Amino acid sequence: MSISPFFHELRSAYQAELDDLSSDSEGKDVLRQRLAAKRKEVDFLLQMVDLCPEMVAVVFHQGFRFPQPVLMDQLLSLEADEFPEWDSLVNAIQLTPWAQELAQVFLKEPSGGRFLTVAAGLEYMHGKLDPAQAARAAEEDKEDEGEDRDEDRTFEQDHNDEDRAREEAGADWMVEQGFDRKD
């Protein structure tokens, strides 16, 4: 998966924002309560959409479903000025009922569709393991299951083939949306 500089820059800020909201000074998990409170501040948040989208995007935490991850992988490779229209992402991004209601408020704004695309991309990345974590998890699996190198190479080759197929499918979808194919 190739991540554009745009999403790469926002990724750690989004994670930091979620981390800040997660626990109080006593270390108690208060993420749910803080997100609920933040969702009630929509008027204020609308003012921040263009300046600090990562700080606003957290209100949609756990509000997206991604039935076609290959399309999300392709989306993450784009810069903000290359985003498709929000309505064209209906197959790649689904909103939970509560998030759908909240999204309608944001979509009334001129940059609402772009913001929702950013929020979905950030949430998608948050839900995926970063490469270092994935490597550690794979190493732990190898040790736990006692797999030999030949099996690992076969798994890795299969995984690479799946990644290529996803990238090709995503590229085909983007061409269907009217974008030029990236080579």
Q: How would you explain this protein's 3D organization?
A:
The chain is mainly alpha-helical. It folds into 2 domains: 5-127, no CATH class; 131-176. 64% of the residues lie in helices and 2% in strands. The chain is built from 9 helices and 2 strands, in the order ααααβαβαααα. A two-stranded antiparallel sheet has the order 1-2. α1 (5-22) packs across α7 and α5 packs across α9. The longest helix has 28 residues, at 149-176. The two termini are 14 Å apart.
Short précis:
The protein has 183 residues and is an all-alpha fold. 64% of the residues lie in helices and 2% in strands.
Task: Spell out the blueprint of helices and strands.
Blueprint: H1 5-22, H2 31-39, H3 42-48, H4 53-57, E1 64-65, H5 69-76, E2 94-95, H6 97-107, H7 112-127, H8 131-145, H9 149-176
Antiparallel strand pairs: 1-2
Helix pairs in contact: 1-7, 5-9, 6-7
Q: What is the approximate shape?
A: globular
Helix amount:
55-70%
Low-confidence stretches: 132-138, 144-152
Please tally the helical runs, counting DSSP H or I stretches of 4 or more residues: 9
Largest sheet: 2 strands, antiparallel
Return the average pLDDT rounded to an integer. Answer: 83
> What fraction of the residues are assigned to beta strands by DSSP?
under 5%
The N- to C-terminal Cα distance equals 14 Å
